[in-house]
Q: What sequence folds into this?
């Protein structure tokens, strides 16, 4: 058998959605979208909402403990915290979001300029001021989100289509490595499952002798500053019970 990672080649993190208010008075995270990956929220406490812009327009989905919602590539989403909103995030294509499969809804002129986008998205190298910088980039993303939302609500999709095109251009170079990540993780798992199904159908169950439990270790130290809130990440790729040393890093999901 090949090495085992989390089911479906997905990644997992705990998210405490930002509780400070953006300039529009709404508390929550930085609106953004993924170009390839599907994301799911499993709400474990608190209440809030998910504001989205997708092929059907703008909508707001209420969130409370027990809510499960997921959104496909191209869905612009904004997590809204109305009180202690905490979420388990499942993301398809583990490793791909960390490789740049996300674009925040900064104003059009920023998204169209790679250098300006990189500067606006950066939280800097040091720990000091990271919370303030996370809030500043969230506020800038909300500004762009409001413009996209208002245009879509008014029946004008030109700004949304322009954002899609600019986002694609922004990540085009880095996307050349994404296929390898998909092949090495979710596709490899699917192919392994298919091989095992075919083995059982042929009468072979030898793989059952390799069964074992895996346990992921949460990242150590302070939680990272992600796009939507403070993150506690887990290394769920090829983990063993107690022999992986997991480091803390910002995952920007």
A:
């Amino acid at each position: 058998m090949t090495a085992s990672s989390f089911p479906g080649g997905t990644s997992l993190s705990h998210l405490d959605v930002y509780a400070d208010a953006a300039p529009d008075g709404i508390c929550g995270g930085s609106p953004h979208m993924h170009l390839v990956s599907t994301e799911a929220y499993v709400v474990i406490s608190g209440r809030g909402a998910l504001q989205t812009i997708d092929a059907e327009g703008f909508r707001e989905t209420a969130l409370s403990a027990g809510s499960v919602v997921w959104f496909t590539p191209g869905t612009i989403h904004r997590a809204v915290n109305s009180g202690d909103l905490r979420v388990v995030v499942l993301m398809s294509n583990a490793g791909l979001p960390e490789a740049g499969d996300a674009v925040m809804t900064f104003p059009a002129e920023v998204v169209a300029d790679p250098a300006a986008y990189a500067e606006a998205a950066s939280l800097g190298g040091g720990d000091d001021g990271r919370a303030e910088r996370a809030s500043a980039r969230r506020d800038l993303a909300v500004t762009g989100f409001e413009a996209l939302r208002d245009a879509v609500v008014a029946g004008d999709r030109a700004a949304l289509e322009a954002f899609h095109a600019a986002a694609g251009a922004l990540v085009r170079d880095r996307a050349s490595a994404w296929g390898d990540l998909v092949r090495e993780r979710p596709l490899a798992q699917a192919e392994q499952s298919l091989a095992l199904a075919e083995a059982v159908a042929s009468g072979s169950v030898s793989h059952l002798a390799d069964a074992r439990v895996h346990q992921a270790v949460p990242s150590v130290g302070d939680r990272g500053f992600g796009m939507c809130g403070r993150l506690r990440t887990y290394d769920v790729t090829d983990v063993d019970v107690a022999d992986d040393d997991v480091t803390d890093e910002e995952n920007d999901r």
Remarks:
- The beta strands are 11-17, 32-33, 39-54, 57-64, 68-71, 76-91, 103-104, 224-225, 229-233.
- The first strand starts at residue 11 and ends at 17.
- The chain is about 30% helix and 25% strand.
- Residues 239-253 have pLDDT under 50 and may be disordered.
